[in-house]
Amino acid sequence: MEVVTDTIYNKEKLQALELLYSVMDPELFVNIMDLGLIYDLIFTPQTIEVIMTLSTPHCPMGEAIVEGVKNVLAQQFTDHVVEVNLVWEPKWNFELISSEGRRQLGI
């Protein structure tokens, strides 16, 4: 994910992205950032909108991953409502996995 740093929420966005490294895919045991599941974060004074995807629309652990995202951000940003927007375009693929994620997966 390319981080856009031209908003007043740059510091918060970078902090939130760092927090998301702690959210693991429970099946693959790799964090969602290295898997390339996070497409963007949009901060407003009251909300954090997380635009993300899952490896498949019927991911059996999708609900757990989404709840992990909400929980980790809500704990740090208590004055914001965290909203997760699951999108299916662009479609997730293996090219979105970071080099660290590939190393962890052995690919």
From TrEMBL:
MIP18 family-like domain residues are 16-85
Q: Which organism does this sequence originate in?
A: Niastella yeongjuensis
Name the source's superkingdom.
Bacteria
Q: Which InterPro entries match?
A: Fe-S_Maturation_MIP18, FSCA_dom_sf, MIP18-like
Q: Which Pfam families match?
A: FeS_assembly_P
Stated name of the protein = MIP18 family-like domain-containing protein
The record's listing under PANTHER family reads: FE-S PROTEIN MATURATION AUXILIARY FACTOR YITW
